[in-house]
Amino acid sequence: MKKSILITGGAGFIGCHVVRLFVEKYPDYNIINLDLLTYAGNLENLKEVENAPNYRFERVDILKEEDLKFVFEKHNVTDVIHLAAESHVDRSITDPLAFVRTNVIGTVNLLNVAKAYWKNYDDHLFYHVSTDEVYGSLEDGGFFTETTPYDPQSPYSASKASSDHFVRAYANTYKLKTVITNCSNNYGANQFPEKLIPLCIHNIKNNRPLPVYGKGENIRDWLYVVDHARAIDMVFHEGKPGETYNVGGFNEWKNIDIVKLLCQKMDEKLGREAGSSEKLITYVTDRAGHDHRYAIDATKIQRELGWEPSLQFEEGITKTIDWYLENEEWLNNVTSGDYQKYYELHYDNR
Ligand SMILES: Cc1cn([C@H]2C[C@H](O)[C@@H](COP(=O)(O)OP(=O)(O)O[C@H]3O[C@H](CO)[C@@H](O)[C@H](O)[C@H]3O)O2)c(=O)[nH]c1=O
């Protein structure tokens, strides 16, 4: 059976890297990108593949079950890689219901449509792309493994934990073939500049304050987005049905050290005096309920599937900075309109 893979959220940050990889690497698959094009989705991210014969785009809201059914029938969808989600923790604190709608109800809608449309479940895979935040927050020791109990702390992570649970419940109850990956913080090209790294790059460039929450002591594990897309490719093709795989970079950084690294690299790139961008660092009120540390044990995917990050962090960060500096138009487009309102609400008034 020819594969017709529905990739949801394909116009978003991680999604666009997955769509590009699959369209280019698998000319024999049909790749259907389903995206609502909310503030974080952008078809400019897919210019390289938009005319490829094996690529189709559908602008659809995963909350509209009838529209999902239509897409399944129109494209004879054989598999789903589900990335569409509200993803920003700060937004989830302001509007938790939006996260329940898209992340929980949207996922259940997709599961229902897949369950009804597919005949022999063994022939189809429902792949849910999730986050390490479902495991909660760590102190200074230890790692999240695939058996760490879920302990979500923010409305965002609670919504992703819930959607993971629904995916597992559909595997258990209806025998749908499913797989889940829980990944750490991604960085790279095409990320909407509300997240720490592109926000800092954008603000350093424009001499705007760099808002560091609390003391900047919180720790995240960072992975280059292309390496996440490679992991998704491997798990899609070789992962064991019913399993979970953690994906991470074994690359922990305190926020303040990331911000300083970006300042240093940007000073070099922009020909500014060393230390000048660091003056933009502004300590602001902490995020409510801010998780202290995420650290992911990615040995299972390394051992079982042979996946490994391909890029060292400093190299990835340099590539990332270069991309944002070279794609000024992209950055200007995504930061026009509502971005300004959002920025004022979240940062200027803190
Ligand atoms: C935007 C922003 C963030 N921060 C802090 C909060 C976090 O400790 C850290 C990274 O923040 P964010 O870039 O928002 O990412 P974080 O909250 O860790 O969550 C990301 O990583 C998760 C995976 O761990 C994903 O599931 C989420 O979708 C993604 O948004 O930097 C600041 O200090 N200042 C800022 O302006």
Give an overview of the whole structure.
The protein starts with a strand and ends with a helix. The protein has helices spanning 13-25, 65-75, 89-94, 96-117, 155-174, 196-205, 225-238, 255-270, 299-305, 313-326, 328-334, 338-348, and strands at residues 4-8, 30-35, 55-59, 79-82, 125-131, 178-183, 185-187, 210-213, 219-224, 244-247, 252-254, 281-284. The mean pLDDT is 96. It has a domain at 4-187 and 222-247: NAD(P)-binding Rossmann-like Domain (Rossmann fold). The chain is globular, with a radius of gyration of 20 Å. Helix content is 43%, strand content 16%. The strands form 3 sheets. A 7-stranded parallel β-sheet has the order 3-2-1-4-5-6-10, sandwiched between helices. With 350 residues, it is α/β, with parallel strands linked by helices. 2'deoxy-thymidine-5'-diphospho-alpha-D-glucose binds at residues 87-89, 131-133, 184-185, 195-196, 199, 211-213, 218, 220, 255, 287, 294.
The hetero molecules present are: 2'deoxy-thymidine-5'-diphospho-alpha-D-glucose
Structural class: alpha/beta
The CATH superfamily of the domain at 4-187 and 222-247 is NAD(P)-binding Rossmann-like Domain
The helical percent reads 40-55%
Low-confidence blocks of residues: none
Task: Assess the beta-strand content as a share of residues.
Answer: 15-25%
InterPro entries: dTDP_Gluc_deHydtase (IPR005888), NAD(P)-bd_dom (IPR016040), NAD(P)-bd_dom_sf (IPR036291)
Organism: Rhodonellum psychrophilum GCM71 = DSM 17998
GO biological process, one term: nucleotide-sugar metabolic process
Domain NAD(P)-binding: 6-320
